[in-house]
Amino acid sequence: MPRARTSCGSRCPIGVVEELLRLRTALKADGLVLSDRRWIALTRVLKAAAWLDDAPAVELDHLSVLKYGLWNKPEDRARVVAVLQTVDRSVVAQAIDIVDEALRGYANRPTEPAAYQSALPQLADKVTEAGKRVQDMLKNGVSRRAHARIQPKLDELKKAHDALTADLSKRYALP
Questions:
Q1: Which residues form the ATPase RavA-like AAA lid domain (predicted)?
Q2: Other CB atoms within 10 Å distance of the CB of residue 16
Q3: DSSP string over 7-52
Q4: pLDDT string in tens for the chain (175-residue length)
């Protein structure tokens, strides 16, 4: 991803910079105007969040820490959180959504044996495809903490995949 020099201290991905500018505009439109000094201080907080996350640069996931510094009065907090919820979803959040959708399909599989046997190939394909999509998304690199957040979901998906593979092996009498 291209990077640009900003007040984030180190190099920040263009997507993060664009999102910060969009957030600033959205907050201003909502009546929350913050000084340039506050924004500079918050970019230091973002840099610290990335460092704590062992990430090479600020990621979209790190923008969530802004909820602690983007308000002037306590009653502004809810508006800030609402604006922050519009942040473009990070790779990890998208990956978790993909895995969750596949796991919902697995959890809602038919219980009647004949219906399960007929749905089995489609379920296996859905779970396998979800795993491949997530692995492709993670190839671009994510921080250690971000990877730690997705790993339990991937482990759960692997268990579902293994169960479906075992059932397919029984169905087709594969060794």
A1: 16-82
A2: 26
A3: TTSSEEEHHHHHHHHHHHHHHHHTT----HHHHHHHHHHHHHHHHH
A4: 444 444 565 557 787 888 899 999 999 998 899 999 999 999 999 999 888 887 788 888 788 899 999 988 999 999 999 888 887 666 777 888 899 999 999 999 988 988 888 888 899 999 999 999 888 877 766 667 777 878 898 999 999 999 998 888 887 775 5
Q: In whole angstroms, what is the distance from residue 36 CA to residue 29 CA?
A: 16
Give the C-alpha separation, 61 to 67, whole Å: 12
| Rounded (10°) CA dihedral 19, 25, 31, 37 | 80
Alpha carbons 129 and 102: distance in angstroms, whole number: 9
Query: Rounded to whole angstroms, how far apart are CA atoms 111 and 92?
Result: 32
Q: Are the C-beta atoms of residues 148 and 92 closer than 8 Å to each other?
A: no
3-state class of 4 per DSSP?
A: strand
For the entire predicted model, the pTM comes to 0.55
Q: Residue 71 has which token pair? A: 């308000």
Give the helix ranges, DSSP H, for the chain: 14-29, 36-52, 77-84, 91-107, 113-138, 144-171
